[in-house]
Write a structure and sequence with these properties.
CATH topology: DHBP synthase
Shape: globular
Low-confidence stretches: none
Strand order of the largest sheet: 6-3-5-4-9-10
Mean pLDDT: 94
CATH superfamily: DHBP synthase
Order of helices and strands: HEEHEHHEHEHEEHEEE
Distance between the termini: 32 Å
Strand content: 15-25%
Helix content: 25-40%
Length: 181
Amino acid sequence: MGIRQAARILRAGGVVAYPTEAVYGLGCDPRRREAVERIRALKHRPEVKGLILIAAGYRQLRPFVSLPRGLESQVLASWPGPVTWVVPARLGVPVWLRGRGGGIAVRVTAHPVAAELCRLAGVALVSTSANVHGRPPARSAFAVRRTFASGVDFVLGGALGALQRPTEIRHARSGKLLRPA
Protein backbone atom coordinates (compact mmCIF):
# COMPACT_ATOMS: atom_id res chain seq x y z
CA MET A 1 0.00 0.00 0.00
CA GLY A 2 2.77 2.45 0.89
CA ILE A 3 4.51 2.26 -2.47
CA ARG A 4 1.27 2.95 -4.36
CA GLN A 5 0.63 5.97 -2.14
CA ALA A 6 4.19 7.20 -2.77
CA ALA A 7 3.68 6.85 -6.54
CA ARG A 8 0.41 8.83 -6.37
CA ILE A 9 2.19 11.60 -4.46
CA LEU A 10 4.97 11.69 -7.07
CA ARG A 11 2.48 11.88 -9.94
CA ALA A 12 0.76 14.78 -8.15
CA GLY A 13 4.03 16.73 -7.93
CA GLY A 14 5.13 15.75 -4.43
CA VAL A 15 8.48 14.86 -2.91
CA VAL A 16 9.07 11.34 -1.58
CA ALA A 17 11.96 9.74 0.31
CA TYR A 18 12.69 6.08 -0.49
CA PRO A 19 15.42 3.43 -0.08
CA THR A 20 18.04 2.96 -2.81
CA GLU A 21 21.16 0.84 -3.29
CA ALA A 22 23.07 2.47 -0.39
CA VAL A 23 21.17 5.38 1.16
CA TYR A 24 17.73 6.94 1.27
CA GLY A 25 16.97 9.15 -1.69
CA LEU A 26 14.76 12.17 -2.17
CA GLY A 27 12.77 11.98 -5.36
CA CYS A 28 10.20 13.71 -7.49
CA ASP A 29 8.95 13.82 -11.06
CA PRO A 30 11.82 15.53 -12.94
CA ARG A 31 9.35 17.38 -15.17
CA ARG A 32 7.92 19.23 -12.16
CA ARG A 33 10.13 22.27 -11.57
CA GLU A 34 8.50 23.19 -8.25
CA ALA A 35 9.17 19.71 -6.86
CA VAL A 36 12.79 19.77 -8.08
CA GLU A 37 13.27 23.18 -6.48
CA ARG A 38 11.78 21.90 -3.22
CA ILE A 39 14.38 19.14 -3.15
CA ARG A 40 17.18 21.62 -3.87
CA ALA A 41 15.93 23.85 -1.04
CA LEU A 42 15.66 20.92 1.40
CA LYS A 43 19.23 19.90 0.62
CA HIS A 44 20.63 23.43 0.27
CA ARG A 45 21.98 22.18 -3.07
CA PRO A 46 23.11 24.80 -5.60
CA GLU A 47 21.53 24.78 -9.07
CA VAL A 48 24.97 24.55 -10.66
CA LYS A 49 25.03 20.89 -9.55
CA GLY A 50 22.87 18.55 -11.57
CA LEU A 51 20.65 15.85 -10.16
CA ILE A 52 20.59 12.12 -10.83
CA LEU A 53 17.63 10.47 -12.48
CA ILE A 54 16.81 6.84 -11.80
CA ALA A 55 14.48 4.63 -13.80
CA ALA A 56 13.04 1.15 -13.91
CA GLY A 57 14.23 0.80 -17.51
CA TYR A 58 16.05 2.75 -20.19
CA ARG A 59 12.78 3.70 -21.88
CA GLN A 60 11.96 5.99 -18.91
CA LEU A 61 15.27 7.84 -19.41
CA ARG A 62 14.94 8.44 -23.17
CA PRO A 63 13.07 11.79 -22.84
CA PHE A 64 16.07 13.18 -20.93
CA VAL A 65 19.11 11.73 -22.70
CA SER A 66 20.74 11.84 -26.10
CA LEU A 67 22.91 8.76 -25.95
CA PRO A 68 24.95 8.18 -29.12
CA ARG A 69 25.00 4.59 -30.43
CA GLY A 70 28.71 4.27 -29.67
CA LEU A 71 28.11 4.87 -25.98
CA GLU A 72 24.79 3.10 -25.69
CA SER A 73 26.13 -0.47 -25.47
CA GLN A 74 28.68 0.41 -22.78
CA VAL A 75 26.11 2.21 -20.64
CA LEU A 76 23.30 -0.30 -21.11
CA ALA A 77 25.62 -3.22 -20.29
CA SER A 78 25.95 -1.93 -16.71
CA TRP A 79 22.19 -1.73 -16.08
CA PRO A 80 20.20 -2.45 -14.13
CA GLY A 81 22.84 -1.87 -11.53
CA PRO A 82 24.69 0.54 -9.28
CA VAL A 83 26.49 2.57 -11.96
CA THR A 84 25.35 6.13 -12.65
CA TRP A 85 26.46 7.58 -15.98
CA VAL A 86 26.76 11.20 -17.01
CA VAL A 87 25.50 11.18 -20.58
CA PRO A 88 24.61 13.95 -23.05
CA ALA A 89 21.30 15.56 -22.12
CA ARG A 90 18.57 15.80 -24.72
CA LEU A 91 18.08 19.28 -26.12
CA GLY A 92 15.57 21.10 -23.94
CA VAL A 93 16.41 19.40 -20.64
CA PRO A 94 16.40 22.40 -18.30
CA VAL A 95 19.43 23.65 -16.41
CA TRP A 96 17.51 23.36 -13.12
CA LEU A 97 17.50 19.60 -13.68
CA ARG A 98 20.84 18.85 -15.33
CA GLY A 99 23.00 21.57 -13.78
CA ARG A 100 25.38 23.76 -15.74
CA GLY A 101 27.09 20.97 -17.69
CA GLY A 102 25.83 19.56 -20.97
CA GLY A 103 25.18 16.14 -19.50
CA ILE A 104 22.74 14.52 -17.14
CA ALA A 105 23.42 11.77 -14.60
CA VAL A 106 21.20 8.70 -15.04
CA ARG A 107 20.87 5.14 -13.76
CA VAL A 108 18.57 2.17 -14.29
CA THR A 109 18.30 0.99 -10.72
CA ALA A 110 18.41 -2.63 -9.62
CA HIS A 111 16.99 -1.76 -6.19
CA PRO A 112 13.57 -3.47 -6.14
CA VAL A 113 11.71 -0.76 -4.21
CA ALA A 114 13.19 2.14 -6.16
CA ALA A 115 12.55 0.36 -9.49
CA GLU A 116 8.95 -0.46 -8.56
CA LEU A 117 8.40 3.15 -7.48
CA CYS A 118 9.58 4.32 -10.92
CA ARG A 119 7.29 1.78 -12.61
CA LEU A 120 4.25 2.82 -10.58
CA ALA A 121 4.97 6.55 -10.98
CA GLY A 122 5.32 5.96 -14.73
CA VAL A 123 8.39 8.18 -15.07
CA ALA A 124 12.08 8.36 -14.23
CA LEU A 125 12.61 10.02 -10.86
CA VAL A 126 15.00 12.58 -9.49
CA SER A 127 17.13 10.61 -7.05
CA THR A 128 19.45 12.53 -4.79
CA SER A 129 20.71 11.39 -1.42
CA ALA A 130 18.49 12.36 1.51
CA ASN A 131 20.80 14.75 3.30
CA VAL A 132 21.58 18.41 3.67
CA HIS A 133 24.36 19.25 1.20
CA GLY A 134 27.73 18.32 2.70
CA ARG A 135 26.33 16.12 5.48
CA PRO A 136 26.12 12.31 5.60
CA PRO A 137 23.12 10.82 3.78
CA ALA A 138 20.23 9.21 5.67
CA ARG A 139 20.38 5.43 5.91
CA SER A 140 16.96 4.93 7.54
CA ALA A 141 13.41 6.25 7.33
CA PHE A 142 13.85 7.57 10.87
CA ALA A 143 16.92 9.58 9.84
CA VAL A 144 14.99 11.08 6.90
CA ARG A 145 12.15 12.16 9.20
CA ARG A 146 14.60 13.59 11.74
CA THR A 147 16.48 15.58 9.09
CA PHE A 148 13.58 16.82 7.00
CA ALA A 149 10.59 16.68 9.39
CA SER A 150 7.60 17.74 7.30
CA GLY A 151 9.71 18.81 4.30
CA VAL A 152 8.89 15.64 2.38
CA ASP A 153 5.38 14.52 1.53
CA PHE A 154 5.97 10.80 2.15
CA VAL A 155 8.71 8.54 3.50
CA LEU A 156 8.60 5.05 2.00
CA GLY A 157 10.23 2.59 4.36
CA GLY A 158 12.28 -0.33 3.16
CA ALA A 159 15.65 -2.02 3.22
CA LEU A 160 18.66 -0.42 1.60
CA GLY A 161 20.68 -2.33 -0.97
CA ALA A 162 24.04 -3.88 -0.16
CA LEU A 163 26.24 -0.89 -1.03
CA GLN A 164 27.95 1.00 1.77
CA ARG A 165 28.46 4.15 -0.31
CA PRO A 166 26.32 5.83 -2.98
CA THR A 167 26.65 4.43 -6.49
CA GLU A 168 29.69 5.16 -8.59
CA ILE A 169 29.36 7.87 -11.20
CA ARG A 170 31.16 7.65 -14.55
CA HIS A 171 31.37 10.03 -17.48
CA ALA A 172 30.11 8.14 -20.53
CA ARG A 173 32.23 9.92 -23.17
CA SER A 174 35.55 9.79 -21.31
CA GLY A 175 34.95 6.76 -19.08
CA LYS A 176 36.40 8.81 -16.21
CA LEU A 177 35.35 7.80 -12.70
CA LEU A 178 33.73 10.88 -11.17
CA ARG A 179 32.65 9.29 -7.85
CA PRO A 180 33.86 5.91 -6.63
CA ALA A 181 31.39 3.45 -5.10
